[in-house]
Amino acid sequence: MRLCFYLKNFSLVNIGNIALPGFPLLLAPMEDVSDPPFRIVCKNNGADLLYTEFISSEGLIRDAIKCRRKLDIFDEERPVGIQLFGGDEESLALAAKIVEIVNPDLLDINFGCPVKKVACKGAGAGVLKDIDLMVRLTEACVKATNIPVTVKTRLGWDEQTKNIEEVAERLQDVGIKALTIHGRTRSQMYKGEADWSLIGKIKNNPRIHIPVFGNGDINSPQKALEYKNRYGVDGIMIGRAAIDYPWIFREIKHYLLSGELHPAPTVEERVAVCKKHLRKSIEWKGASRGVFEMRHHYMNYFKGLPNIKEFKSRLVQLTGYEEIAEVLDEIKIYYKGIEIAQMEIELVNYHEHCSL
Ligand SMILES: Cc1cc2nc3c(=O)[nH]c(=O)nc-3n(C[C@H](O)[C@H](O)[C@H](O)COP(=O)(O)O)c2cc1C
């Protein structure tokens, strides 16, 4: 019975030669966030497909060594996609060739980044103003590589130019293998609520046969199920909610399969995930940066525990793995057996706080 339900609702989703489990959950590409340590944490907690943060095609060509770090991918995170942005056909095609060296499972093109330094230089969401250019850029990339090419974009440049329906058909025609749509325009940045109605319309367009993934504002299992049913998308991409709470992926999966809410992670689990994230951070970034960049994650991992601030202020002063692990073990003992209530995941308007 359960198997029939699963097969009916969750048949495999193929992106080129990559077969993803039914109704895959994708970790969004996020600048300065979606690095290998964070990606692995999300993968371990149910994310089916991961993306690197965006990488400038021009930057990659000019200074491949500096950007090389951003190309680091590891077998344990596969399938993983590398995301590029750029506004010049030749550069994008050349960057696609460079990316082939590290053999990602797919190559994603960013036509959605709204920040001035990208969009106003004719890349990212800037390309939404010129669909012919977008098609040429995409085609150049598809022709340059044998890796499946996917695109992530927004509804359009502004309220008056929501051209995503034309975009979807034309990009499919030049060979992309999947499309992810963030339900906002460029002018909206991160304001207001994501509007998924056009995403649903594209999914239901009989001309469209590639997978269509919806993105924007998913922060609970209930919302994921509601949007799955209402808009019929092939899967969901999650960004900000995962930063706060990487367990969102497994909780959505559990809810979709059983209709029941997965209990929030225990303190033991939180400590284990935090330690792993820290270890991976140190391995990949080196001791000093690895520890430093973990500091903003502590509060997220232990949100909801009474008086956790005292532990947090100790954690952020420490610099070595062993001493941090000791405090984490103290947290485990201090809060042992405490049930942590499910909390609503707040969706921060990152645009106000960082460059995106
Ligand atoms: C800190 C941050 C960095 C981001 N960097 C990228 C990026 O490199 N490439 C990209 O396509 N989108 C980027 N985005 C947009 C996300 O991928 C996603 O489309 C957006 O956050 C909406 O999804 P959400 O509501 O689940 O967060 C970024 C978002 C945030 C919050």
Short description:
Helices cover 46% and strands 13% of the residues. With 356 residues, it is α/β, with parallel strands linked by helices. The termini are far apart.
Write down the overall mean pLDDT: 92
Question: Widest sheet: strand order?
Answer: 3-10-9-8-7-6-5-4
Radius of gyration: 20 Å
First and last CA, distance: 45 Å
Number of strands: 10
Q: What structural category characterises the helix and strand content?
A: alpha/beta
Helix content: 40-55%
* Uncertain runs: 352-356
Could you give the order of the helices and strands? HEEEHEHHEHEHHEHEHEHEHHHHHHH
Number of helices: 17
Oligomeric state of the chains?
single chain
Which of globular, elongated, flat, extended, rod-shaped describes the shape? globular
Q: Could you tell me which ligands this complex binds, including any ions or cofactors?
A: flavin mononucleotide
- Portion in beta strands: 5-15%
**Largest beta-sheet characterization:** 8 strands, parallel
